[in-house]
Design goal:
Chain B: The chain crosses the membrane at residues 17-37, 74-94, 106-126, 138-159, 193-218, 238-259. Chain B: Keywords: Cell membrane, Membrane, Transmembrane, Transmembrane helix, Transport. The complex is a heterodimer. Chain A is 79% helix and 0% strand. Chain A has 10 helices and no strands. In chain B, α3 runs antiparallel to α4, α3 packs antiparallel against α8 and α4 packs across α6. Chain B has helices spanning 12-42, 48-51, 57-94, 98-113, 116-130, 138-165, 168-176, 181-211, 223-234, 237-273, 279-299. Chain B is mostly helical. The chains are: A mainly alpha, B mainly alpha.
């Protein structure tokens, strides 16, 4: 026990996990926004939009996240000079890297969110949309008032999976210098090779604590909110 | 696809409207592309000097092909090991013995909750500290360990759900003709479960291939690392990253297509084996299968 409290006082473990949580939550919001738009494009009656949506999903889903995030930093920022933070700020590098990581994580996971919502649309029975059209609702209103609300409820379990994956994948942000949990773990393992197992244990347990409740919450939500048919 | 359900076949007015929105979509897409290209051009990323290297043999023999081999080698070893680990753990979770079932469950849940990157970093540090592997193999061993543990537990879950999806009679019939429980598992349940789960297992290959790129972080010489080296050598980092990204997309699309083909084949076979169905039953069954497979193929956890 003495060793663990020593490690906790020597290294910013809680701060690192706080960074992981920030990364996850911010990226989750943006991924949900982008993903919903892409999903709507894919189920829309307009061929061009369908193709753009499908193209987005197929390209992004098959690219490694590490490459996406490395590109955000080395490509977007260093080579192309795209900065997403205030350059005169003292914490420019940190803020910029953090936001670039959020950008990469959001763009990457949006494709999975889109697929989750599309599978949710598949759970809505045919008659629902037919009825909506029968009372004269056009496509967007059918989607907004009838199909999407049910689709989201049907997609809660897969969306939960995406959120859990996003939590774990946020560790990749350390590759562009975001001081998250994996960066801190790497740091600790380099400085204290004598306690490798303890270090790994601390971070592994941290992730179990982060992801387990999300899994349980989303499973129970998906049962409670599922539209009974 | 229930897209056809959401809208009527458009009439003349809607067709005009759709054409206008479609055209607007194309215009916006072209504007974005033009903006990106202009930005790239502005920073001198579109010059022939930056893109020509990919046409030379040197870049391929010195960088791209070794990188591809690195990526494929790590993926291949991990998949084989993950299959072994996955089948063992999957069967372990189904075991009637508490002392096998519980540890298997804990192992599977643990390795699914911990990020692959943390496992790689840990394995890499561990092998480096205890000098388990020759120095030039440590990175590969780290990548393979992380991928095997994570994907092994994913495959264990696939095996388990495959066995659960079998009709109950299979187990009972096998026991009734006098097979022991292990033999029932090995000769009757497991082959069917693995066949049923094959598309999902092949689909998992995409995740494995993508996750090898995490090896970049522990200095494993795979495609992404090679892209960076090309970028340093020819000072064309952006083109190199785009090129290697395209390689990944092409390879993974092929693997994904393979998984879909396999799934269609299993589905066809599954339906014909079930005996003739009434027309409305066929529809319902097809819808159920489609929804289930859509869930499986797209909503499994996305790898990094």
């Amino acid at each position: 026990m003495h060793l663990i409290s020593e490690l906790f006082s020597d290294y910013p473990i809680f701060g690192a996990f706080k960074q992981t949580i920030y990364l996850t939550l911010l990226s989750a919001v943006f991924a949900l926004l982008i993903g919903t738009v892409v999903a709507v494009m894919r189920v829309s009656p307009i061929r061009v939009l369908q193709l753009i949506g499908t193209g987005y999903v197929n390209i992004v889903r098959n690219t490694p996240l590490t490459l996406v995030i490395v590109f955000c930093n080395l490509g977007l920022f260093i080579q192309l000079g795209v900065a997403v933070a205030n350059k005169s700020s003292d914490t420019f590098i940190d803020t910029n890297n953090f936001r670039l990581a959020v950008l990469g994580l959001s763009v990457y996971h949006a494709s999975f969110v889109a697929e989750a919502i599309r599978s949710g649309v598949n759970t809505v029975p045919l008659g629902q949309a037919e009825a909506a059209r029968a009372i004269g609702l056009p496509f967007l209103k059918t989607l907004r008032h009838v199909v999407l609300p049910q689709a989201f409820r049907g997609a809660i379990a897969p969306l939960g999976n995406v959120l859990i994956a996003l939590t774990k994948n946020s560790t990749v942000a350390s590759v562009i210098g975001v001081a998250d949990s994996s960066a801190t773990m790497k740091d600790m393992m380099e400085n204290r090779p004598d306690v490798l197992f303890v270090t790994f244990g601390i971070f592994a347990v941290g992730f179990v604590i982060l992801t387990l409740p999300v899994g349980i919450l989303f499973t129970s939500l998906s049962k409670r909110l599922a539209v009974k048919r | 696809m229930s897209a056809g359900v959401l809208f009527d076949t458009p009439g003349p007015r809607s067709r005009r409207l759709y054409a206008v929105i479609g055209a607007a979509g194309i215009v916006i897409l072209l504007l974005i592309l033009w903006f990106v290209l202009a930005k790239l051009d502005d920073k001198g990323q579109l010059t022939a000097a930056k893109w020509k290297p990919f046409l030379t043999g040197e870049i391929w023999t010195e960088y791209l092909i070794p990188g591809l081999i690195g990526t494929l080698k790590a993926a291949a070893i991990s998949v084989v090991l993950a299959l072994v680990v996955g089948v063992l753990l999957g069967v372990g979770r189904l075991s009637a013995t508490k002392w096998i079932r519980w540890p298997s469950s804990v192992i599977v849940e643990f390795f699914r909750a911990v990020p692959v990157l943390l496992m790689m970093l840990f394995a890499y540090a561990l092998y480096g500290h205890y000098e388990t592997f020759p120095p030039d193999q440590i990175a590969l061993a780290g990548v393979v360990t992380g991928l095997t543990l994570y994907n092994g537990s994913v495959i264990a879950e696939l095996v388990r759900s495959g066995v659960h999806s079998l009709p109950k009679g299979q187990n009972e019939a096998a026991l009734a003709i006098g097979l022991t429980t292990p033999k029932t598992m090995r000769l009757v349940l497991l082959p069917q479960a693995i066949t049923a789960m094959m598309p999902a297992i092949v689909g998992q290959l995409v995740v494995v291939l993508k996750d090898t790129a995490l090896g970049y972080i522990i200095t494993y010489e795979e495609l992404l690392r090679k892209a960076e080296q090309i970028g340093n050598y020819k000072s064309n980092l952006v083109p190199a990253l785009i090129f290697v990204g395209a390689l990944f997309v092409i390879i993974n699309n092929f693997v994904g297509l393979g998984a879909n083909k396999l799934e269609q084949r299993t589905r066809r076979r599954g339906r014909s084996a079930g005996g003739p169905l009434a027309p409305d039953q066929i529809d319902q069954a097809a819808v159920a299968v489609a929804a289930a497979s859509a869930n499986q193929a797209y909503t499994g956890e996305p790898g990094a």
